[in-house]
Automatic annotation (TrEMBL), chain A:
PANTHER family: ECF RNA POLYMERASE SIGMA FACTOR SIGM (PTHR43133:SF50), RNA POLYMERASE ECF-TYPE SIGMA FACTO (PTHR43133). This is RNA polymerase sigma factor SigM. CDD domains: Sigma70_r4. Residues 29-95 form the RNA polymerase sigma-70 region domain. It comes from Streptomyces cremeus.
From TrEMBL, chain B:
Residues 114-135 have a biased composition (Low complexity). It comes from the Bacteria. It comes from Streptomyces cremeus. Residues 87-143 are annotated as: Disordered. The chain crosses the membrane at residues 145-163. This is Zinc-finger domain-containing protein. Keywords: Membrane, Transmembrane, Transmembrane helix.
Length: 234, 299
């Protein structure tokens, strides 16, 4: 199989060629999809090394399991599914141990590279960091749904196929995830001087600057109330 | 988390979020919508939720997989290819490599599709999850993890090479072609152990806590022997320094040597070379054909 033929082949053909023994077919598949898989993994795990491990595990697994691909979904969906599952496994493991806070800012910055240029307003950069830090406090399933749908822009139906859950579940995970992120935004908005407050935020350990929001009922409506100084419960 | 609040009270933030996604029952949706329409506070919550959604969508993020990670994954897949070519049909026996990397052992747990098979196909006696080789410690240094991951995969290929020139009974080691050497009893051998041993032979007893744990089921750890490397094979690497270790086996059906040499520029890596052994007979003074070369991080 020469390179031109490989480039012309669709994903499913490439996978079939790989199963048939073509040594280059899987590599072409990887070239086609690795950037998207990488983005999903990095954002789901929030850690470069963990994400690299997850994508590697997933691709090696896919390489070995290619002969079992049934064609019931697109190859890209299948690759995403294996990758997201590898990420969720790792996220659950990571949740059971507490990461060192020392490198958190660096790690968050890694996630914003390379497009968070120095010219971006500091306020906005801080907002992005806070958002990423808050994302990491979410349950992995909610995070994965938000990464796929809100961040990467996959249609809900595709995210549902990747996560192997009904579309309603994807919507629910997204909705609950956003609800849990709300206290973050409230916190940022409530800063009176803007920069001053955000500056403080930067020096805090990101993970702790956001309320865990296990009780959205309390955290939500009270935040805006603080801003507006009114509108208590009826 | 369905709300128990009445229409007179503010709905949950989660409920307002659910409303946006169309997840509420029609009657509840009507109630919540009516409330939000009349309540500045809850309207603001709804707006904020939309804002979060928009922020997530505009967050800067990775466009490309970084080159170093591309290289790492290519190396891991090349190791898989090496395995495929040396041990056809062994894929189910080697699947534990994946599971070892994902402590839950089941990359596709939520799917009914076949990728779940590798974990299920784990050979009997292989430890599951976090007790797997090289994964016993969560605090395992990063480089160690890479070593286990990438070279672990490489080791699978190496194992296939080893299997072919180390007969089961321990005698007869001079006959690298012995077909019986591919008997499945070698398939489950902890290959990381072999590679570690290959790179670090003078350490009969493991004291390094970070080293991959030796599978308790393992009864016959390979006595690692470094074979003499014919001149033409050494030539094939394009290097004159002595290999750290060498093995004879086959690659893509050809007799070949696997040589591990220090990496030329990175002391943290080793460079693996697979050189066609045909030159030993055809052109002993010549240069053996280099079939594959890859760098792997060393622990």
């Amino acid at each position: 199989m020469d390179e031109v033929t490989l480039r012309d082949a669709d994903d499913q053909e490439l996978l079939a060629q790989h199963v048939g023994g073509d040594p280059d077919a899987f590599g072409e598949l990887v070239r086609r999809h690795r950037d998207r898989l990488w983005a999903v993994a990095l954002r789901t795990l929030g850690d470069r090394e963990e994400a690299a491990d997850a994508v590697q595990d997933a691709l090696v697994s896919a390489y070995r399991a290619a002969h079992t691909f049934r064609g019931q979904s697109a190859v890209t969906t299948w690759l995403h599914r294996i990758t997201v599952n590898a990420c969720l496994d790792r996220a659950r493991k990571a949740a059971s141990r507490k990461t060192s806070p020392v490198d958190d800012t660096d790690r968050l910055d890694q996630l914003l590279e390379p497009h968070e240029s120095a010219e971006a307003p500091a306020e906005r950069q801080d907002l992005h960091r806070e958002l990423l830090a808050a994302l990491r406090t979410l349950p992995a399933e909610q995070r994965a749904a938000l990464v796929l749908v809100d961040m990467q822009g996959y249609p809900v139906a595709e995210a549902a196929r990747v996560l192997d859950v009904p579309t309603g579940t994807v919507k629910s995970r997204c909705a609950r995830g956003r609800a849990r992120l709300l206290p973050l935004l409230t916190h940022l908005r409530s800063g009176t001087g803007g920069n001053e407050d955000l500056g403080r935020g930067r020096n805090r350990r990101p993970g702790t600057s956001v309320p865990p929001a296990t009780e959205p009922r309390d955290a939500g409506p009270n935040g805006p109330a603080a801003v507006k100084g009114g509108g208590g419960r009826a | 988390m369905t709300s128990t609040t009445g229409t007179a009270q503010h709905p949950d933030v989660a409920e307002i979020s659910d409303l946006t996604e169309g997840l509420l029952s029609p009657s509840r949706a009507q109630d919540v919508r009516r409330h939000v329409d009349d309540c500045e506070l809850c309207a603001d919550v709804q707006l904020s939720l939309e804002e979060i959604r928009g922020l997530l969508g505009t967050l800067p993020g990775p466009q490309r997989m970084p080159a170093d990670i591309v290289g790492r994954i290519d190396a891991a897949l090349a190791a898989e290819a090496l395995l495929d070519s040396t041990a056809p049909g062994a894929s189910s026996d080697t699947a534990h490599g994946v599971s070892r990397e994902t402590a839950a052992g089941d990359v596709s747990r939520e799917t009914t599709q076949a990728p779940a098979r590798p974990a299920a196909g784990r050979p009997a006696g292989r430890a599951r999850g976090t007790t797997g080789p090289g994964r016993s410690s969560q605090r395992m240094p990063r480089r160690r993890a890479v070593w286990s991951a990438v070279l672990g995969a490489a080791a699978l290929g190496l194992g296939a090479l080893l299997v072919q020139n180390l007969p089961a009974d321990g005698n007869d080691a001079d006959h690298p072609n012995a077909a019986k050497a591919q008997t499945p009893q070698f398939a489950g051998t902890p290959l990381e152990t072999q590679v570690d041993a290959l790179l670090d032979p003078p350490k009969p007893v493991r004291s390094d806590k970070n080293a991959p744990s030796v599978d308790v089921q393992e009864k016959t750890p390979f006595a690692v022997q470094t074979v003499a490397v014919p001149a033409c094979v050494q030539q094939g690497t394009g290097r004159s320094d002595a290999p750290l270790a060498a093995k004879q086996g086959s690659y893509e059906g050809k007799q070949a040597f696997l040589l591990l040499l220090p990496h030329t520029s990175d002391p943290k890596q080793v460079q693996a070379y697979v050189v066609d052994a045909a030159c030993v007979k055809t052109a002993p003074a010549g240069k053996g054909e280099l079939l594959l070369t890859h760098g792997y991080p060393r622990g």
